[in-house]
C-alpha cells in the first residue's frame, strides 16, 4: 500500500473575484520509504501539494490518503491527531520556538503527544546526536547558525517517530556545504530507519539526492515528470 495517494486533486486560491488555480487534477502515489522530491519553479504548485498531503490545507476536489487514511473523511480533531502522531514537518523558516533550547525544541512534538519526560528527553538527545548537534543541546535558536537551526528542525520532525516527513525547501536558506550535509543526514535516516521523506524544492542538489523526482509546472505534473 502506498504511503501517500493523491487522486485528481484540485486547489484554487481566490484573490478578490479572481480564481487562481494552484493544482489542476494532480494524481500521485508515494511508496513507503520513499526519498522523493517535488520539483518545480515558484508557482508550480509543489508547496501547495505538500501542504495538502500534510493536512495543513484542504483541497477543493479529489482525494488524499496518507498512511491508509483518507484525509477528507477525518474530523478536525482526528486530522490534528494525524498530523501530531504520523506526520513530521520541516519548514523553510525552521519554525523553532525562540525561548526553548535545541533539546526542548526537539522534544516539543513529543510533549504534545504526551510522551513521558524521561523518554522524550532521551529520544530528543538521540535525534540531536543523529544530526550532529548533541554538544549544542542547551543553545537557543538565536545562538545557532541557520544550518544548525534546520538540523534541530529535522531532529524535532524525526524524534516523534512519524510515518512520513514533509520538508518544504529544506536547503533554501543554507549554503551548499551545509545543505549537502543536511541532505546526507536525512538520506541516512531514510535508509537506516525507513522514514519516508517528501521534499518540495527547486534546488538541483536536492533533486540529485532524491531517489525519485516528480516535476511540476503550472499546477500539474509534467508528462514524464517522475524520474
Topology:
Elements: E1 4-15, E2 18-30, E3 35-39, H1 46-53, E4 61-66, E5 69-70, H2 76-86, E6 87-90, H3 102-113, H4 117-130, H5 146-159, E7 164-168, H6 176-193, E8 196-201, H7 204-209, E9 212-217, E10 220-226
Parallel strand pairs: 3-8, 3-9, 6-7, 7-8
Antiparallel strand pairs: 1-2, 1-4, 4-5, 9-10
Keywords: ATP-binding, Nucleotide-binding, Transport
Organism: Desulfoluna limicola
Pfam families: ABC_tran (PF00005)
- The first-level CATH class is given as Alpha Beta
Rounded to the nearest angstrom, the radius of gyration is: 17 Å
Order of helices and strands: EEEHEEHEHHHEHEHEE
Largest sheet: 6 strands, mixed
The CATH topology annotation reads as: Rossmann fold
- What characteristic shape results from the CA principal axes? globular
Structural class: alpha/beta
Strand-residue fraction?
Answer: 25-35%
Count the domains.
1
Fraction in helix: 25-40%
Question: Which regions are unreliable across 5 or more consecutive residues at pLDDT < 50?
Answer: none
Topology, number of strands: 10
Question: Count the helices. How many?
Answer: 7
Can you walk me through this structure?
- This protein is α/β, with parallel strands linked by helices.
- The protein is 37% helix and 29% strand.
- It is built from seven helices and ten strands.
- The chain has helices at 46-53, 76-86, 102-113, 117-130, 146-159, 176-193, 204-209; strands at residues 4-15, 18-30, 35-39, 61-66, 69-70, 87-90, 164-168, 196-201, 212-217, 220-226.
- Strand 1 (4-15) and strand 2 form a beta hairpin.
- The radius of gyration is 17 Å and the shape is globular.
- The two termini are 20 Å apart.
Amino acid at each position: 500500500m502506498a504511503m501517500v495517494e493523491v487522486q485528481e486533486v484540485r486547489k484554487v486560491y481566490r484573490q478578490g473575484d479572481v480564481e487562481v488555480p494552484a493544482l489542476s487534477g494532480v494524481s500521485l502515489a508515494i511508496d513507503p520509504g520513499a526519498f522523493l522530491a517535488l520539483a518545480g519553479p515558484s508557482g508550480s504548485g509543489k508547496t501547495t501539494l505538500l501542504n495538502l498531503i500534510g493536512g495543513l490545507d484542504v483541497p477543493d476536489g479529489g482525494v488524499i490518503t496518507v498512511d491508509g487514511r483518507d484525509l477528507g473523511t477525518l474530523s478536525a480533531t482526528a486530522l490534528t491527531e494525524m498530523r501530531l502522531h504520523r506526520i513530521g514537518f520541516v519548514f523553510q523558516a525552521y519554525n523553532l520556538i525562540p525561548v526553548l533550547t535545541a533539546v526542548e525544541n526537539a522534544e516539543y512534538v513529543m510533549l504534545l503527544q504526551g510522551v513521558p519526560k524521561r523518554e522524550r528527553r532521551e529520544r530528543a538527545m538521540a535525534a540531536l546526536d543523529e544530526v550532529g548537534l548533541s554538544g549544542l543541546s542547551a543553545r537557543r535558536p538565536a545562538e545557532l547558525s541557520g544550518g544548525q537551526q534546520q538540523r534541530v528542525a529535522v531532529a524535532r520532525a524525526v524524534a516523534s517517530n512519524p510515518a512520513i516527513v514533509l520538508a518544504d525547501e529544506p536547503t533554501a536558506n543554507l549554503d551548499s556545504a551545509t545543505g549537502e550535509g543536511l541532505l546526507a543526514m536525512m538520506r541516512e535516516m531514510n535508509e537506516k530507519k525507513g522514514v519516508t521523506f517528501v521534499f518540495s524544492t527547486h534546488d538541483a542538489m536536492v533533486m540529485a539526492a532524491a531517489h525519485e523526482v516528480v516535476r511540476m509546472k503550472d499546477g500539474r505534473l509534467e508528462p514524464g515528470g517522475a524520474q
